[in-house]
C-alpha cells in the first residue's frame, strides 16, 4: 500500500482537502512546476500556516498531509484547537478563504521549470500565484453527514518569492475552467508581437551569447550557480526571508519588461541594481577597445612645417654675416667725361649684418614605472616623436613670424638670433599695406589683397619664383570671388597662384591674428632659398637621454643651437590689410628704405 493510498483511507479525519500545487501550469512569476517536482513530500506532513507568516507560533493553524499525484500535490488539512486554527476553519467552511499556497526550498530549476524541491509548509492565503492551487473539499464530521464540496475556487497560489500582499493579482473564479490542460498553457503563449511576453518568451528571443550574459549576471547577483541542476542555496518562494543582493524571478520579469521597453537588456539591469545593493555592475560588460594606439595628437595643421624646413638654405656654421655694397646711390653711377675736366671716383657704401645662434630645446620626462607598465605601444618612441614634431614647428614658426612670446618671457626665441621674415629690416622685407574701408567685408579685402600682391611684385628682388604664405581664411575669400554674373574667378588654388605670380600658395595656421602698425598680416612672399638656418657641428638637432636614480625618472632633451636670417636684400614681401580707409577703392602703401644709414 502506498503512502498516498494510506492517506486516502484516513481522509475522514481531516477538515478539508485540496490542491497544494498543480503541475504544468505557469505561475504569475513565470515558473512552471513539473510533474514529480515534489515527489519526496509524498506521504509527508508539514505545518499548516496562515499567509506564510513564520515569525509567530500563533500563525501555525494546523497540519497538512501531502500526497503526490500525477496532476500535482494534493493535501489533506487539519486545523488545531487554537483560536486562530478554529477561526481559519470557519473561514474555510464559509468559503471566505479559497486559495492554498506552498512554501518550498532546495529548488532545482531548468530555465523556468521547477523540477525538484521540498515543500516546507502549506498556507491558507487570500490569493496566490498558481491558478491550480485551491480547496476543493470541506469535510463536515458527524453522523449521517455527507462530504460537502466547495468546487473550483480558481484562485492563484502564492509562492514565497511571489507578489507582495499589496500587489496581488485577483483572478475571478471561472468554474468552467477547473480542468486546466497543457493546451491552455500553449494558448497563453501567443504571438509575441500581439500579447504580453512572459519571462520565458523574452528569454528565448535572446542569442546564445546574450543568454550566457544573463546566466552570469544572475550568478553574480545571487552569489551562487543556477546552471542546469545545481541546487539553489536559498528559498526563492519566501517573500518574508528574501536575502539581500538577491534578484528574484518576479524582479527578472520586471527587468525583461523594461528591456522590451528600453531596447537594451544592459540598461534594464542597471536600472534595477540600486534595490539589490549591487555596485559596479558595469564590470560585467566588455571593456571599450582603444582604436588609436598610440594616442593620436590633437595639433595644429603642420603640413607647411616639413616644406618650410626642407626649403630653407642650411649652412654648417651658425654665425652668419651678410655683406653688401650699395651701388644704388647717385655717387655710384657711371659718369660722362668732358675733355679737360676732373674725373671723379665712384663712391658707394658697404653694408653688413651679423646673426649669432641661440639654443632651442624641448624637454620631457617619464616615470620609469609608467614606461614599464605601458605595454600597448612604445611610449618612449611616441614621446620622442612628439618632441621632434614640436621642435620643428617652433623653429619654422620663429623663422617665418616669430614665436609670439613677449620679449620679457624667459622662453622667447630672440629675434636677434632667429630673425622672423615678416618683420625683418626693410632692406630685406618690403612691407605693403592695403587700406580698405572700416566696414569692408571679406570679399573686398580679398580683392584688394590680390591687387596689392601683384603690384608689389616689382619690389621683389629675391631668387626665382617665390611662395605665398597666407591664412586659410584669405585663400577661402579669394576662391569665393565672383564676377558680375556669379561665376567664380579662380577655379582652384593653382589658378589663383598663377594670378598672384607665385609658385604655390601655402596656408599657415600660426599666421592668423598677427597685427602691428602696418595692419593685419595676410601674406608673406618669399623664396625660402634666401633664408639661411645655420648650425655648427654639434649644434644640429640632437636627442639626449638621462636617468634620474633618485626619482626613478627617465628624462629626454631634444635641442639645437642655430641662427636664422634672410641673406638677400628685398627677398621678401609682407602684405598687410588695414581697415582705415574711407571707401572701397582705397590706396596701397609700399615701404622701402630711403636710406640705409641705420642698417
List keywords for this structure.
eight-stranded mixed beta sheet; 599 residues; hypothetical protein PF0899 fold; alpha+beta
Folded structure, characterized:
It is a single chain. By secondary structure, this protein is an alpha+beta fold. The protein has two domains: 3-284, no CATH class; 429-539 and 565-591, hypothetical protein PF0899 fold, CATH 3.30.2320.10. Helix content is 23%, strand content 26%. The protein is built from 13 helices and 22 strands. The protein has helices at 3-9, 83-94, 182-188, 199-204, 208-222, 249-262, 265-271, 303-311, 368-373, 379-400, 442-456, 472-479, 493-499, and strands spanning 16-22, 32-33, 45-50, 60-68, 72-79, 99-110, 113-125, 135-138, 313-315, 320-326, 349-355, 358-367, 429-437, 467-470, 505-507, 515-516, 519-526, 531-534, 542-548, 553-566, 572-581, 588-591. Strands 1, 2, 3, 4, 5, 6, 7 and 8 form an eight-stranded mixed β-sheet that branches. A hairpin with a 4-residue loop joins strand 19 and strand 20. Helix 6 packs across helix 7 (265-271). The longest helix is centred in the middle third of the chain and has 22 residues, at 379-400. It is elongated and about 165 Å long. The termini are far apart.
